[in-house]
Amino acid sequence: MVVGPDRVAAARLLVETYGCNLVVSDDGLQHYHLRRDIEIAVVDGFRRLGNAACLPAGPLREPPSRLREVDFVVGNGAARGREYLMSLRGETAVNLEDPLITSTLASFRQCTVHAVAGIGDPWRFFDHLRHARLRLIEHPFPDHHPFKPEDLQFREDLPVLMTEKDAIKCRGITPASCWYVPVSAQLDPEFEDQLLKRVAMVAMAKGIRRRPETLPRRPRLAPLSEPLSGDEPDGQETAGDSGVPRQQSTAGVRQGASGIDL
Predict the structure, then answer these.
(1) Same domain flag for 65 and 120
(2) pTM greater than 0.70 (yes/no)
(3) Domain, as residue range, for 11
(4) Cα 147 from chain centre
(5) Is the bond preceding residue 56 a cis peptide, omega within 30 degrees?
(6) Does residue 135 lie within any of the structural domains?
(7) Closest C-alpha among 133, 110, 118 to residue 180
(8) 75-94 burial by CB neighbour count: b if 16+ within 10 A, else e?
(9) Do 44 and 67 meet the contact criterion of CB atoms below 8 Å apart?
(10) Of the candidates 70, 150, 157, 168, which lies 20 to 30 Å from 259 by C-alpha distance?
(11) In what order do the strands lie in the sheet with 92-95?
């Protein structure tokens, strides 16, 4: 993984230094200097496109017409039309002081909790906790908020639940009973199938073959009858030694040849 504002330099580092043959760029649709073969746009399934205006008049980085140019559109939380649904799952809380201590969200139903979120849409996290039937005192913060100890000092001595993203910035400054809720993205299986097919098509069009060392070994098949002398009968060859080249899969991607842009 490489983090950097220059997506082209980051991709080049992955290819040249680490030998990556497939580059996935997060938040990279607007980096047009980055060559790409597949584009995936993620749309907020509930807020949608807001007022459909670009920054600073609205929430968009590009006009809505851009969605007609990408290969896939994924709806985060809800999907419309030809969009593919992505939902977030997470039913466990992890203690910040000792990550080996975990607890189910259901165990917090007996009390009210402080819900802290400094992400793009804090209410998505709050709704996730409410879906688990928790009673909340909401504390929304701006996206990428640099938390300070006083941000987490509340009058009510109650458990604090926050996002995993915020927990990274809050280690060492949190109260004793502070937990984060890791979530994982669940994607429509049809989207996964179509994406893999598209990657294979790109590889085939470029004449790219999977690296030989990554190909699974095919088991040698024994002949139908063992030769009595230990030699192969005239005109007979064991399977796998017939001299016919084995067909290689084209599902892989040659180094530096393809990228998927998110």
Answers:
(1) no
(2) no
(3) 7-88+186-193
(4) 25
(5) yes
(6) yes
(7) 118
(8) bbbebeeebbbbbeebeebb
(9) no
(10) 168
(11) 102-104, 92-95, 178-181, 160-163, 112-117, 135-140
